[in-house]
Amino acid sequence: MTTDDTTSSIPAKRGSSALQMGPRKKASLTDPLVSHGRHFGRTVFALCNYPSLLTNGILRLEQMEDTPLENFSAEERREHRVFEQLLDSYPGLLDRLKDGSDEEILHVGELIGKGATGARGDDTKTLKSAVLDWISPKGEAIQPPLHRNSKIDRGFNHNLTGSLLCPAGLDWNDPRIREDLRSGEMLVCGDQWPVFLYAHYVYDHDDPWSGLLKSRLLAYKHVFTSPSSVDREPKATRSGNARLHGMNCVTMASIAYVATQVRFALSSSSVFSRTDTTTDSETFYHSLLDLLEDPEESKEVDELLTWWNRQVFPTSSAAKRPISANSALSKIRQKRMALRQATNLHAVSS
CA-to-CA distance for 128 and 223, rounded, in angstroms? Predict the structure, then answer.
């Protein structure tokens, strides 16, 4: 997936969102920030103009001395959360930015962007071929054949990929819908999620959360552990990108990232671009994040994260099931809590 992540100049003022891709700028130096950018793009925010993110963030920190964050727009608050996550994930970065010149801030952003772009490109390259193995009927070849090195016949041009990309709630088997999708008469926006996101590719009109983002096609382990682990049982050890960066739990953004990559792999588009209205990948990615970050959906999102952690990081604390209400362990914990509360009350009264 080729992306445009960096910009050639520092924004003069906070205006355009940094959480959109900017024009491409090549970063040539090797730096730990490049490696960090690879992981940050996959797990925190993928489609980002990093020089703008850093510049806007520094300016906003100064403005927040007089203006609380709550007074900024929703987009600016979200951008600042991403900025703070970047600072928290890389010790010393804030000091480097505060002490650096405008050119240094630009350079740091380019390095992080180089890492994020490189990771996306690497994942796109491997998924382009691998996705064909995952969608092939068991023991059969895809008919008509789909080429591994060309995507021109994918998307709505092919019955198999078309059925997977068909927006949830539409019937791919309806000849009129199928023809409208193939001809472009029916445009599919990024927030019209494809049915392949659902477990068993089944969408429940009455319960649209049911099975959402639990599809076997969302090959999380292909990106974060190793491509060879996709069809294997979860194991206690971690490897690949997750191990390199000390990752031991699934993030909301990483689920959206994998979904965006797989959707692009199934499409007929060969190059990821901001102006590509066919895939509309930015809108797709942002719309998933909007749902996953919505406090109103926290119960469903927590359950989804726990489900994914059991698949990918089964030994992590994030994958543990809640203690059964009537179990011996539960009663021991309740008794211990009651004793602690009684001790505290006694200490206060004495």
Answer: 13
Nearest to 169 by CA among 200, 195, 145: 195
CB atoms within 10 A of CB 231: 12
Is residue 41 classed exposed, middle or buried when 0-12, 13-18 and 19+ CB atoms within 10 A define those classes? buried
Count of residues making up the chain: 350
The SS3 call for residue 240 is helix
Contacts (Cβ under 8 Å, ≥6 apart) of 289: 252, 253, 256
Locus of tokens 């590509």: 276
Two structure tokens written together for 157: 């041009």
Per the CB < 8 A criterion, the answer to whether 165 and 186 are in contact is: no
- Strand ranges (E), the chain: none
Query: What 8-state DSSP symbol labels residue 323?
Result: P
27 has a pLDDT exceeding 50: no
Q: Quick one: which of 196, 193, 200 has its CA closest to 167?
A: 193
CB count in 10 Å sphere of residue 182: 15
Query: d(Cα 48, Cα 40) in Å, to the nearest integer?
Result: 10
Pick the closest to residue 170 from 150, 187, 146 (CA basis): 187
DSSP sequence for 13-41: SS-S-SSS--------S--HHHHHHHHHH
Confidence band of 271 (pLDDT split at 50, 70, 90): confident
Residues facing residue 212 across a β-bridge = 198
Mean pLDDT score of the chain, rounded to an integer?
86
Say if residue 221's pLDDT is above 80: yes
3-class secondary-structure state, position 194 = strand
